[in-house]
Amino acid sequence: MGSAAKLIVDALLQRFLPLARRRIETTQTHDGRYLRPSDPAYEQVLDSLALVARHMPVPLLEALLRWRDSESPKGANDTSAFQKKLAVECIFCSACIRFVQCCPPDGLTEKLWSGLEHFVFDWLINADRVVSQVEYPSLADLRGLLLDLVAQLVGALSQISILRKLHIS
Hints:
The protein has helices at 3-29, 40-55, 57-71, 79-102, 110-130, 140-168. By secondary structure, it is an all-alpha fold. It starts with a helix and ends with a helix.
């Protein structure tokens, strides 16, 4: 990645990280409920993600994927860990929706494109195995929100997929 692109992505992530952590903490302190309060600073960062996605989608998506991997709890299988995992996935998915809506059709590598598709279909197919509604009923609302966001991301990916096919033909 070029040094200018890296600086822009790094600056944007410096704004994104504390806002994302606050949303994760808010989710954890409100007993699994993911509150959607109006947060102008967070919305502004998501808008900035969308603008950057138009010009440098690969470094931005790679940075979001690294953030997701670093924030996702490893190893623990209790309500708190699943709650944090769902919150991280909701934030990642929200960012990806904005990202995909503004990303040029040919802006991603095939590997990154496939990774996003795998992410959405993995959650759609395996959500109950990952976070069972029976075992974790307190997380049902948060899980439902994630699946709603995943469905929105499928829609955004579908639009881009059509444009990619038209662009390639």
